[in-house]
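Hello,

Our lab assistant flagged a job as stuck in the queue for most of the afternoon. It eventually completed. Since we weren't sure the result was trustworthy after the delay, we are filing this so someone can double-check. Below is the sequence as submitted and the structure that was eventually returned. Let us know if re-running is recommended.
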Amino acid sequence: MRNNKIASIELLRFISSMMILIWHYQHFFYPYNLFSKIEILKDNSLQPFFKIISIFYTHGQIGVDIFFAISGFVFSYIYINNETKALPRNFWLNRFSRLYPLHFLTLFIILFLQNISLKFYGTYQITSVNDLYHFILNIFFISGWGFEKNYSFNSPIWSVSLELIIYALFFLTIINTKKFIFLKALSVFITLLILRKLNFFDNSYIINFELIVKYGSIFYTGVIAYFLYDKFDKRILLFILSIILILISFTGNFKILTFCPGILILFLSFESFLNVKLRKIFCLLGDLTYSMYLLHLPLQILLILLIKINNINMDIFLNDLFFLNYIMLVILVSYVSFHKFEKKINTKIKKIFK
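-- returned structure --
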């Protein structure tokens, strides 16, 4: 049974969440913040520290792709060959108790803030679709399946919603399998890859199979990375493989299906070099990522409204000091959320259902 976290992966998880956090900093400007006069989509170089972290501002969405690859690896690491944890009841109870409480809380926080904005200023902030239909989709955790008309409420939840389908695919094809596990994982990945390359699915389906295939294939690169990590004792081989995959990803058009496992394996190759103190720090940072992912948008809406209420110039979002304080605020609130809310309610839910 495996209980220990892999610190290098927790660090990569945190970096990925930071990529998304910085990528979404554009929400403080027009057209997301309708009070702002700065049209950020025309010139995103105005954002704080752009010369230093421009890659996060321009390509931070790749953090979502890396998240899916990490999930594939972590799920394989935890559940493969662990019959107790892999029981259907335990598997889905763990997923529900970890994911739903914070989603439920942030959904109602967003509902409250958006109604305040609509009542006093006649408009929503960041996400413009916040009706009853999309609220129901969010309540049932299906806001990223293709039923939605646009991003709604706490919009980042779309990727977590989509992951639930991929979790089910992983559970049905991999978990509780004792023979030919790697071949089955590889066959699922190849099938998804073929469907992706052939553009087999289009937007005419009710469920967004195109997104499921896209992110499912990325998820399974993480599954395959797990088998490589599990078999290779010499980490130098992992390092060489990671460099090859990353170099391939930048040859010609950018290839996310080689970049994600490449960066994942690169971090894994350094795992054995980490001391106890670094492991603790990286695991602590990794714990905050789900909170950071779900809490940053409601915090953004709250800050926009507070700036407006106090008649402060919206150009404050261009300020370097504000940017740093905002990042620290998200991390601090996420820390409190994880330790004071998520961990406690996670334990309570498991006790109730067990």
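-- support follow-up --
The delay was a queue issue, not a problem with the job. The result is valid. The chain has one domain: 7-353. The two ends are 20 Å apart (CA to CA).
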